[in-house]
Design a protein that fits this description.
Layout (H helix, E strand, L loop, with lengths): L1 H19 L2 H21 L9 H17 L4 H23 L4 H21 L1 H4 L17 H24 L1 H11 L1 H6 L4 H26 L10 H14 L6 H19 L3 H15 L3 H25 L1
Helix pairs in contact: 2-7, 2-10, 2-11, 2-12, 3-4, 3-5, 3-10, 4-5, 4-10, 7-8, 7-10, 8-10, 11-12, 12-13, 12-14
Length: 312
């Protein structure tokens, strides 16, 4: 029943979202929710920390933007950018999973910086430091509300697909590798191969999200492919709660809302976000999702105590 309640709450949020936030902000929340839930497959379920997810998000945004600027329909732009991201993720993942721990992180960071440099210097194609601008929206998505509905529909499809991955035997293998890679290897699983699968799944869905992001502001900013954006993605996922399937969505909502609010109040708002991140890592390892679960448990215990007192 708890699962159903969380999904009902999510549906209510998707319906009320356009009334709670501006259409651009809520569309960004939904796009980054795809990224965070996909990253959680790799980080929370498989135990792989990558600082290269921005390269896939930016790649999806740039390719989709270039296709739309060429006058081709969105139904070509999204599949082509997603497949291109899949190919890139397969190549990068092949090299990254050869190493573990800090070396895996450094490799993903290095590839991210390589792609960022290419986007920065290839001005004729990517626009350089100005980013890819003047990306047209399809005619049926010129209205910001219709764009939000379109993005939300794709989000729900992605959520269903990722949920199937987590609840499948493949998802159990990911969790086994996270808990004890040596045990997984000893019983016959090719740990590197399954790590690569997890990496490619997370990165491909991240690229798909990037292909949607480019339509929100009709541009692909260069900072969307910078490694600092990879840090933001990791923060959102951890802030919401790794290991909880829908937890990262809470992290995205909290991060975007707080960054938008704090940036208006104080120019040095990243200091507060850094402090918040430190508190989450130190005291709330399960993020907002675990905090909410603990509060619900304490409420049930308190309520049960009151009921026992009344009955006695």
């Amino acid at each position: 029943m708890k699962k159903y309640y969380t999904y009902i709450a999510l549906l209510i949020f998707l319906i009320l979202g356009p009334f709670l936030f501006s259409h651009a902000t809520i569309s960004e929340i939904i796009v980054y929710s795809i990224v965070a839930v996909a990253t959680n497959i790799m980080l929370g379920y498989t135990g792989l920390l990558s600082f290269g997810q921005a390269m896939f998000f930016g790649t999806g945004a740039y390719i989709s933007g270039l296709i739309l600027k060429a006058g081709l329909p969105i139904f070509i732009a999204i599949p082509v950018s997603t497949i291109s991201t899949f190919i890139l993720a397969s190549i990068v993942g092949y090299f990254c999973v050869k190493r573990t721990g800090l070396y895996f992180i450094c490799l993903s960071f290095a590839f991210n910086q390589m792609l960022y440099f290419i986007a920065y210097v290839w001005v004729d194609v990517t626009g350089g430091e100005d980013g890819l601008v003047a990306v047209p929206r399809p005619e049926f998505l010129t209205n910001s509300l219709s764009l939000y509905i379109f993005i939300t529909l794709i989000f729900l499809i992605c959520l269903f697909a990722l949920r199937r991955v987590v609840s499948s035997p493949l998802g159990l293998v990911f969790q086994l590798i996270r808990e004890n890679p040596s045990r997984a290897s000893s019983i016959g699983y090719n740990v590197k191969f399954f790590k690569m699968i997890s990496f490619v799944i997370a990165s491909t869905f991240t690229g798909l999200a990037g292909s949607l992001y480019v339509m929100i502001h009709s541009m692909a900013p260069i900072d969307q492919i910078h490694w600092l954006k990879s840090g933001d993605i990791i923060f959102m996922t951890l802030f919401g709660g790794v290991g909880h399937f829908l937890g990262p969505i809470l992290g995205v909502i909290g991060y975007i809302y707080l960054s938008d609010t704090l940036s208006i109040i104080w120019a040095r708002w990243p200091l507060l976000m850094g402090l918040l991140f430190a508190l989450v890592v130190l005291y709330f390892r399960g993020g907002i999702a675990e905090l909410i679960e603990n509060l619900i448990k304490k409420y049930k215990i308190f309520k049960k105590g009151l009921d026992d007192e009344k009955s006695s």
